[in-house]
Design brief:
By secondary structure, the chain is α/β, with parallel strands linked by helices. Helices cover about 30% and strands about 30% of the residues. The longest helix has 19 residues, at about 310-325. Bound molecules: nicotinamide-adenine-dinucleotide.
């Protein structure tokens, strides 16, 4: 089978990881890289002399059979639209778009044109999250009560998007994926300490129809670097710590059991402190797994695991959270009727 000709649009801090990974894939030919920055283009040209390096996204797309978009968020919608209109399978970085209206328009266009879209919700390709998903599906944790994540560190302070839109796509996509449903209401509070109008610190709460609560703490103004998710179930509790190089997943056989004769007395609840298991999780790089999946999707050998519709769902939650953030944490209802909001 001939190699899939792929172009990357946007080769900045993150996009260059796409470039490097694609350049190393045996079934891919990295044909073009587009970046608006002359400095970036020089760098890429020196590193990959055989690759077309251009400032024109249309030129890069013209050379390719599939395209990866890793430009700043505001450009995702127009570039994805162009790729779909050209019939090119597209992997677009998170956040899919900055408004539900743009996201819904792309979902529709992709469906009408029959062009597959993968949204770069990287954590959904993480082997530890895959494992967690199957544990929840197989009822190993019992009833999921609540989950919370911490995605904090010092920097990178972004001038064009707040901590919610920068980090939130990860936490929201994971919560929706693990729980298998979108939240019914959200509330977010945050503060802009460094730049006016751009929240550096955001606390987001999502409430699901099942009663599950999910909380995400997001910040680039924090002394710690944390990438951690805790899921608390009635039988077991799990911690996914992405800062650990090996033992990323810990399963705690812990909980509070309610004996059958349980009445209304708290003292009849029994604390259970069992073993902690550390399962072996494959160490494959999530970006490499994501791009392998994208190649299979572009070749029509697989359906997108994170498609445009699920990208749009995450955008809808983030937009509702933004609304709440602007009103200092007012609870915002998310119903299917909100599907058309901008
Ligand atoms: N999945 C992840 O884990 C992850 C991690 C980091 C960033 N990202 C996402 O990747 C995207 C890029 O982030 P980044 O950190 O690399 O940003 P960045 O600012 O470092 O890079 C963006 C690059 O795009 C170029 N660019 C801007 N507009 C362009 C246009 N219209 N056409 C061509 N090039 C253009 C810029 O010159 C720059 O080199 C963002 O959407 C971000 O949220 C995802």
């Amino acid at each position: 089978m001939s190699r899939l000709r792929v172009a990357v649009i946007g080769a900045g801090n993150w996009g260059r990881n796409h470039v490097r990974t694609l350049a190393g894939m045996p079934d891919v030919e990295l044909v073009a890289v587009c970046d608006s920055s002359p400095g970036r283009r020089d760098q890429i040209s020196r590193q990959y002399p055989d690759v077309l390096v251009t400032a024109e996204s249309e030129q890069a797309m013209g050379a390719a059979e599939a395209v990866v978009i890793a430009t700043p968020a505001a450009t995702h919608a127009p570039l994805t639209r162009t790729a779909i209109e050209r019939g090119l399978p597209v992997l677009v970085e998170k956040p899919f778009t900055l408004s539900p209206r743009d996201a819904d328009a792309l979902v529709e266009l992709a469906a009408v044109r029959g062009v597959p879209v993968v949204v770069g919700h990287l954590l959904l390709f993480h082997p530890a999250i895959e494992r967690l998903r199957s544990m929840i599906k197989n009822d190993e944790l019992g009833t999921v009560y609540y989950l919370y994540s911490q995605r904090v560190n010092l920097g990178q302070v972004r001038p064009d998007e707040n901590a919610l839109w920068s980090f939130g796509p990860h936490d929201v996509s994971v919560a929706l994926d693990l729980l298998g449903q979108p939240p019914v209401r959200v509330a977010a509070q945050g503060r802009s300490y460094l730049q006016a109008g751009i929240e550096d610190v955001v606390f987001l709460t999502m409430e699901f129809e099942s009663g599950v609560l999910a909380h995400a703490q997001m910040s680039w103004l924090d002394p710690h670097k944390e990438r951690r998710l805790t899921v608390v179930g009635s039988r077991k509790m799990v911690v996914f710590d992405d800062m650990q190089s090996r033992e990323k997943l810990k399963i705690y056989d812990r909980g509070v059991d309610r004996p059958p004769e349980y009445g209304s007395y708290g003292e009849s609840l029994a604390i259970r402190e069992g073993d902690i298991a550390i399962p072996r999780v494959p160490t494959d790089e999530p970006l490499s797994l994501e791009l392998k999946h994208f190649v299979a999707v572009a070749r029509r050998q697989a359906r997108p695991r994170v498609d445009a519709a699920s990208g749009a769902e995450v955008v809808r939650v983030l937009a509702a959270a933004s609304e709440s953030l602007a009103e200092n944490g007012r609870v915002v209802e998310l119903t299917p009727a909100r599907a058309g909001i901008s």
